[in-house]
Amino acid sequence: MEKSIEQLRMKKSEIAAKCGAVRDAIVGLTDEKSFVELTAFGFSEGEDEVVTGFATIGGYPFYIIAQNFAVSYGGLTAANCAKIAKAQAAAEKSGTPIIYILHSQGVCVREDANVLEGVSSVLRRATRLKGNVLQFAIVQGEVYGSSAALAALCDFVFYTSGGMLCLGSPFVLAAKDGKTLKPIEVGGYDAGAPLPAISVKDIRAAARGIQAIFELFDEPMHEAELNATLPALNKKADAETIFKLFEQPIEIGANHCPEVKTVLCRIGGISTAAVVLNEAKINAETVRKVKMFAELCYLYGLPFVTFVDCLGTETTVSAVNGPLLQEIGRYLEFLDKMECAKVAVVTGNAIGLGYSLFAAKSVGFQYTLAFAGAQIALLTGEEGADILGEDGAEGYTARHGSPIAVAKGGYLDDVVEPALIKQHLIAVLQMLG
Predict the structure, then answer these.
(1) Domain, as residue range, for 119
(2) Which residue, 143, 175, 210, sits at the end of a domain?
(3) In terms of domains, do 169 and 244 share one?
(4) Could you tell me if 348 and 279 are in contact, meaning their C-beta atoms sit under 8 angstroms apart?
(5) Backbone angles phi, psi at 249, to 5 degrees
(6) pLDDT tens digits for the chain (433 residues)?
(7) 382: in domain
(8) Counted domains in the chain
(9) Is 178 exposed, middle or buried (0-12, 13-18, 19+ CB in 10 A)?
């Protein structure tokens, strides 16, 4: 027995030596002494590049899949793809969310089709998990190739300081473009990849963010003040002021399309997905960002609330070409499939498709409100005055863009004082919930 115990200690020491850094990351991510490893002695060639197991964060259970960059630069092999798939299957069976700690420069080139089949299995399982369990990716350093594709399938992607995510090597991409760029400029958070991205300082900050997000999904209702007002909205209805309506806001994807803000939050204690269009213009990128958030609501049943200040479609050749039309079609598909509450608030301008896509009852919104000073029209005031020969922009807006006139047509449920909007939203979300 003593000999067996000594052999066990030696084996565990070997494991610790090979996987020290990745285990430190797991310790930083999870509750103290909560991590339980799976397939700990699975050391056939390639398996030690990945550590899998389960643990708690803030008392909530998660499966953990972590890449070990210290072995072959985290290169995926067929063996560790099988190990990842095994953990994914266990998470699916138990309905437990997954956290991927990613740090890899690609795949093991010696394995050819074997590793490609393994990667396909992992990506397919990740796709099947969407809508069933939440998946979080933490970009913990360089993440290239197939591991980047896995991150793109996750519901949320946390970039730690210095994290880089790119389907191809940044060095190769920069060279092909004839540019001298640092890898962080190609694949870093500020490079603006259109992902559900969140920037954090380190793994511990990622843990806090994951816990906060999971609580919004796991506990859809909290106690809150139901009669709060926000007088500042009567003076200025911009994104910064609208954010003050939200409890525990977490902005997703702040690194791209800043005129469209996608926010997980609570409104009156109710978990909500809010889209704030802040003097936005419609193009493929803005619609894609809203579509991604609409997909999240469709998959997990979160109430979907839009705050609309949109000046219509961007009038450039690149903006109105095929990609925009495709993104509009996909967005409308998710909007139509949603069974959760869909509420729109016109806070400023809702011009042309800005109204049709993001506020109209006919496109699926169950309840639509407008601020007293909003404008809802086919054209901006200046465009309307030019085309129709109205008495200036104000004349066109007064005749054709008044929210009162739109409400008389039955297209708005109410025109409200901005300061009171939170009370209205709470009542509507309670009713539709």
Answers:
(1) 2-210
(2) 210
(3) no
(4) yes
(5) -70, 140
(6) 766 666 556 655 555 555 668 999 999 999 999 999 997 655 445 457 799 999 999 999 999 999 998 888 788 999 989 999 999 999 999 999 999 999 999 888 888 899 999 999 999 999 999 999 999 999 999 999 999 999 999 999 999 999 999 988 776 666 666 667 787 888 899 988 888 999 999 999 999 999 999 999 999 999 999 999 999 999 999 999 999 999 999 999 999 999 999 999 999 999 999 999 999 999 999 999 999 999 999 999 999 999 999 999 987 766 667 799 999 999 999 999 999 999 999 999 999 999 999 999 999 999 999 999 999 988 776 666 566 666 666 666 666 678 998 888 899 999 999 999 999 999 999 999 8
(7) yes
(8) 2
(9) exposed
CB 310, CB 358: distance < 8 Å: yes
Together in a domain, 231 and 206? no
Structure tokens at 113: 């089709």
Say how many C-beta atoms besides its own lie within 10 A of residue 432's C-beta. Answer: 13
CATH of the domain at 376: 3.90.226.10
- Is residue 216 situated within a structural domain? no
**SS3 of residue 349 by DSSP:** strand
Buried (b) or exposed (e) across 57-88, using 16+ Cβ within 10 A? beeeebbbbbbbbbbbbbbbbbbbbbbbbbbb
CA atoms within 13 A on the CB side of 4: 1
Is residue 338 within 8 A of residue 297, CB to CB? The reply is yes
Q: Do 248 and 383 have their domain in common?
A: yes
Strands 50-57 and 60-67: antiparallel
Would 329 be classed as within a structural domain? yes
> H-helix or E-strand containing 146?
helix 146-152
What is the C-alpha to C-alpha distance for residues 203 and 314, in angstroms, rounded to an integer?
39
